[in-house]
Amino acid sequence: KHKLKICTVTSANAFVYSNTKKSFKEYFNQRARHTQTSFHYPLKQKSFLVLWHFLNITFLLSIFLTPVNILFILPFSVKIIFDVTSSFIYQKKFGYKFNLFEIIYLQILYEIFLIVHILNAKFGKVKWK
Description:
- By secondary structure, the chain is mainly α.
- It has four helices and no strands.
- The chain has helices at 24-37, 43-61, 73-94, 100-123.
- Helix 2 (43-61) packs across helix 3.
- The radius of gyration is 17 Å and the shape is globular.
- The mean pLDDT is 84.
């Protein structure tokens, strides 16, 4: 609308910190508000995000097809290796510390919650402060 660009900024001076929500309901509402704003992104950014998360979910779910063919473990393995490697590379820069197990299960939870948050933002009643 205002011809502003959306991009990733990795400078520590650009980080915005917020207080941790005290309840799951507060967290859920906050994520719904954040997700709801993504409906206003330019088509190019929305398309990229849809493709990115579709691939992430597809790669994660591919593990369930390994009984059909063992090669289905490859997309899952590639995704996990990418997530773990990139997390270990950027942990210090972004000021967080996760162990291997946390990186894997949190990435899986993130993709699941993303679907829930999109549905909630699109069809739920989102309260803004």
